[in-house]
Write a structure and sequence with these properties.
Keywords: DNA-binding, Transcription, Transcription regulation. The protein is α/β, with parallel strands linked by helices and about 100 residues long. It has helices at about 1-5, 15-20, 35-50, 65-80, 90-95; strands at about 25-30, 55-60, 85. It has a 3-stranded parallel β-sheet, with helices on both faces. The longest helix is centred in the middle third of the chain and has 16 residues, at about 35-50. The chain starts with a helix and ends in a 7-residue tail after the last helix.
Length: about 100
């Protein structure tokens, strides 16, 4: 089987794997603006660790707009990300359920 997979240059279907395991190997990060030095440096460090552990990084830029942050969180959850991190806007900290709104 492995010889055939190699001969045919088989690439595993990540979507099928995600559906079977009900999660992905993706970590989502939401930041207000990627070009801010603090965030670009943090993303570089996060990416290094994430890749070393066999995950992928998906970066979302919110512009510190609450409605956009909510859509991005919902989108990441729909992709069944293995985890997510965010720097919430002030409004989100008061309104979003969970750790940001606790």
């Amino acid at each position: 089987m492995l010889a055939l997979a190699e001969q045919w240059e088989y690439e595993p279907n990540q979507l099928a794997h995600q559906l079977l395991n009900r999660r992905s190997n993706t970590i989502g990060v939401i930041v207000p603006k990627i070009s801010y030095p603090l965030y670009s440096q943090a993303i570089t460090g996060i990416e290094t660790v994430v890749e070393r552990e066999g995950y992928q990084l998906l970066i979302c830029q919110s512009g510190a707009v609450y409605e956009k942050e909510v859509r991005q969180v919902q989108s990441l959850l729909s992709f069944r990300v293995a985890g997510q991190s965010a720097d919430w806007s002030e409004t989100a900290g008061r309104v979003l359920p969970g750790p940001a709104g606790s």
